[in-house]
Fold this protein.
Amino acid sequence: MLQGPATPARLNKYLLLAVPKNHGMRALDIIEAKGFINANATFTEIHSAVSVAEVQFLRELISQGRPRRTLEIGCALGISSLAICELIGPDAHHTIIDPFQSTDWKGHGLFNLSQAGFQNFKLVEERSEYVLPRLCQEGASFDFVFVDGWHTFDHVMMEFFYIDRMLPVGGIVAFDDILLPCLNRLMRYISRYPNYESLGCRGRQDGLTIFRRGLFALRTLVGWMCLPLGNRLRGELLHDGVVRSDASISLNGSITAFRKTSEDDRGWAWYEPF
């Protein structure tokens, strides 16, 4: 019996506890319920997961590319993994890298995938800085990659370095949490690559602080004032956020993606300001 006030969150928990344990839930089910029944038959509330808009974006990207081999960095509660495994179908294969699945995440992601009945995935519980070079050396190739692991600039840059080598022409790489300053900066760098094109972004910028919103407005003003300098000089002298707004390069959301349009033919000292 439900004790206390019938809030939406408590009703979700009560209704889910009545569901048989072996009843697998899909990504949108868990997002809507704001949680799931874990392996101990108790309710786990989601606090770190993709949103409905982000799942829909993944759906659009996968529908475009129809990938056969996919890679994901970061499983956590398994919400995005559930979405990808469902979208690629049983004949494709999804590789997931998450060194903290059994520890920090208590196996919740793997449990949700197993309960949903998916068998088209493999979980590698090692750090990406060890797994990606090994996969690259083995000649692995992935048509679609979703990056949502450790978010420091240097770590995700390292991951993209290897992803670029395993992504065929036409392949797609998507990044979550691009509102973070470290990832926003990295996306600006990747957007300069001559052999990648932006596929847009989704999600809302609700996570922006008042300070960052004010900073963006100030950058826009300074950018207009410095237009007479020309693009090249502005790029060398000013922050890239002044020269190119988030909206102008599809970074005004929480998730973005790029398609590889050709092989990398940059020179040995290639550089563009970002």
Notes: The CA atoms of residues 183 and 197 lie 17 Å apart. The radius of gyration is 20 Å. Residues 1-6, 13-23 have pLDDT under 50 and may be disordered.
